[in-house]
Amino acid sequence: MKNMHSIRTDYVKGELRVQNMLVTPQEQLSLWIDNAIESSALDANAFCLSTVNADGCPKGRMVLVKEIKGEALIFYTNKGSSKAQDLKVNPRAAATFYWPELERQVCISGTVYEVSEDDNDIYFATRPRESQLGAWVSDQSQALDSRDTLNKTLKLVTDKYQGVSKIDRPPNWGGFRIEFERVEFWQGRASRLHDRVLYTKDGSGGWNKSLLQP
Q: Is-catalytic flag, 17?
C-alpha cells in the first residue's frame, strides 16, 4: 500500500463569502448541484446517507437525491432496506455531498419523513422501465445465495410484465425526505484553511448564516 501520509492536495479552485451565499440552504444546494452537473461531475446528485440503527450503530451509503422541495431533499428506496429500517427506529439522518471536481462539500442533518403515496407513484412513473422492473426484483439488503437467483427473478418479472405498458409501483418502494435543520457548505482552500459557512434556523422561519473555523 502507498504511504498515505504522502497524499496531499492543495485546494485552489474557489472561495466562499457569507455575503455571496444565497438566502436559504436549499437555494444554495440547488446551485451547487447545478454547478456540479455543468462541471461533468460523476453522479452530481449523489450523497452519502448516514443513519443509525436500533443498536446505535451508524452506517453510511451512497444514494441519489431526486428532488429538492421546500426545505428538504428527497430520495427513494426499498422500504425493506437497511437504511429504511434504520429510519423507522431513528428518523434522523445526515447527508454528505462531495464534488472533488469543484473541491466542495455539503453536510446536512435533519429529521426524516416518508413521502406521500401519490408522490411515490408520480416519481415511479418517470423511472426507466428497467429500473421499475428492478424495484420488483430486489429484496434490498437481504441475503442472496447467488447472482443467478437474482437473474432468474428478473426474468420472471420481465416475462410477467411483457406487453404491459404501465408497471405498478411495488408497495414496499417509496421516498423519504430529509428536512433541513443544519446545513454546512465547505469550499477547499490552500494550506487547509478551508471556507465553511453554516446555515441554522433563526426561529422565525428564516435562516442564519455564520462562518466556522477551518
A: no
pTM listed for this prediction: 0.94
Residue 23 to residue 40: CA distance in whole angstroms: 26
Average pLDDT for residues 181-209, to the nearest whole number? 97
62 contact partners, CB below 8 Å, separation of at least 6: 43, 46, 47, 48, 49
Selection from 133, 116, 134 nearest residue 175 by Cα: 116
Categorize the per-residue pLDDT at 32 as very low, low, confident or very high, splitting at 50, 70 and 90: very high
Please identify which residue in the block is written with the cell numbers 455531498. Answer: 97
> pLDDT exceeding 70 applies to what percent of the chain?
100
Q: Which of 17, 147, 177, 192 is catalytic?
A: 192
Looking at the domain covering 8-128+170-211, what would its CATH class be? mainly beta
pLDDT band at 5 (very low <50, low <70, confident <90, very high): confident
Task: Locate 39 and state its grid cell.
Answer: 462541471
Q: To the nearest whole number, what is the mean pLDDT of the chain?
A: 96
Dist CA 183 CA 36 (whole Å): 18
Binned at pLDDT 50, 70 and 90, residue 95 comes out as very high
Domain definitions of the chain by residue range: 8-128+170-211
Residue 24 half-sphere exposure toward CB, CA atoms < 13 A: 13
With CA atoms as reference, report the closest residue to 210 among 12, 13, 70, 25. 25
Q: Which residues contact 156 (CB under 8 A, 6 or more apart)?
A: none
C-alpha cell at 84: 429504511
- Output the CA torsion 190→44→73→62 (10° steps): -90
